[in-house]
Amino acid sequence: MPNQIRFEVLTFETTPEVVPHVDSRPLTELIDAYEVGAKMDVAGDAYAGLVPAHFDFGPMEEHYLGAGMGPRVPLLGCTCGEWGCWPLMATVTAVGDTVTWDEFEQPHRTDRDYTGFGPFTFSRTDYDEALAVLMIDLADWA
């Protein structure tokens, strides 16, 4: 059974912040729990959503399909609002009727092992619908 996806738009200072939710749980909580459980240094509450105003990700619906930056994209950034400060990267693969997030990494800690985290596989129809809602939510900020 595929995972469920939703993109929540929160407020970072005075601009939108995008937090993916997998199976009704924020990705920030999922990765924090994984890192704390794996006893990783600098684990827990280190991640936040992406702040599109702080970096030109291009159209967010393309970013979350692995376009623009390549298949490995940041899904989360740092609590300071800059994605490059402390990103959670993943490979996003959209093939046929599925979208998969896997090969997670924290590029500032290359010795970390994320093989037990994910993969998350979504129905392409549900994923596209979640992206359409995200784009409407982001347009409300304009």
TrEMBL record:
Originating species: Herbihabitans rhizosphaerae
Protein name (database record): Uncharacterized protein
